[in-house]
Amino acid sequence: MTSYFFSNARIVDGTAPEPSAPQGVVVENGLIREVSPTARAPEGAATIDLSGKVLMPGLIDAHVHINAIDASLGKCATLPDALVMARSIKLLGEMLMRGFTTVRDVGGGDQGQVLAEQEGLFASPRLVICGKALSQSGGHCDFRGPFDNNPPRFSARLGSLGRLADGVAEVRRAAREEIKGGARFIKIMANGGVASPTDPIHFLGFSREEIAAAVEEARNAGTYVSAHLYTDEGIRRAVECGVHSLEHCNLITEETARFAAAQGAIAVPTLVTYDKLSSEGEALGIGAEAVAKVDDVRLAGMESLSRMQAAGLPMAYGSDLLGAMHRHQSEEFVIRGRVLPAQTVIASTTWIAAKLCRLEGKVGAVAPGAYADLVVVDGNPLEDLSLLTFQGRHLPMIMKAGAFVKGG
Length: 408
Description:
By secondary structure, the chain is an alpha/beta fold. It has two domains: 4-58 and 364-406, Urease, subunit C, domain 1 (Roll), CATH 2.30.40.10; 59-329, Metal-dependent hydrolases (TIM Barrel). It is 31% helix and 20% strand. It has twelve helices and 17 strands. It has helices spanning 73-76, 81-97, 111-118, 168-180, 208-220, 232-240, 254-262, 271-280, 288-311, 331-337, 342-348, 351-356; strands at 4-11, 23-28, 31-36, 46-49, 54-57, 59-64, 100-105, 126-129, 133-135, 162-164, 186-189, 225-231, 245-251, 266-268, 374-377, 397-400, 403-406. The strands form four sheets. Strands 1, 2, 3, 4, 5, 15, 16 and 17 form an eight-stranded mixed β-sheet that branches. The protein is globular and about 70 Å long.
């Protein structure tokens, strides 16, 4: 494998409010071997001068649905697996070209897709998956209408976000099956949702006993539970039951955020999806009733960022977009930057997201021993977060595992 030497690399990784002093970065065999002001190019290495530019770790999006290839999640679950896979490949390639070299799928991705990515069969970020998300009947993975009591038909489809499980025994079995199938963590739907037809936002998903069962099964496997959550009551209850990853959190109070922080939880706000569901969702076919739910959480989202920041609750980067709205993935940077310091926003897509993915030191860092997942930026994103938007326009070079996927 070709080795590279990046000279004059000013590093921005979310750990400091300013870029580092110029560094030399040595890349060999897909890994970062050395980062030092005194580093020198190994014999035969290709040298790249980054004067006037910034070097970042590959970006991490900790809340995606790689098989949400249509704005209607109910429709996704009815499409042929081959079509879903083909469209998913396109979405993943576009994510990579925006600088996202790792993504955490929180409902739908399967181990076959992980293996295909690892084998290099298509251009894609690294994939960290939970398999199918778990939902109670009538919850956020149940796309049957209020008068449809037939057994759910599509839970095994690639395009299905999740599966239904009712009662402690079913939750245990579902969690065990997802872990057996390659899930790196377990996802549950613990509040109502926007895209599903019969669960208002305030609904609590699963009993405490069911949540605790999922948490125990995850811990038995050495991992954690992620939960779809909006309301303060739902968040507090989930944390009390041992849930670690708190998705969305639009209606959280500062008191609950402090409690979650004390328990070591991490939040994953996803504000861009509500902005785009509100403006584009109905035209893309998600239904007026779902769009009407959006404002229940959209308008509180910006305040939730301030509350979580004040409480010291770490926040990872998440986008949670569907279908054609995936093109807005990078706009979460700018939305958060209206409330949070740029360093905090960048930390969300580097070391905090890496910690949530259980890949600390391997992704989200420009450091010896990390994967050589690197992004070069024309300018300083600590001064202008919009440099990370525009579909990678300001990212002249993107490297994954020591190989350039753009530029170089």
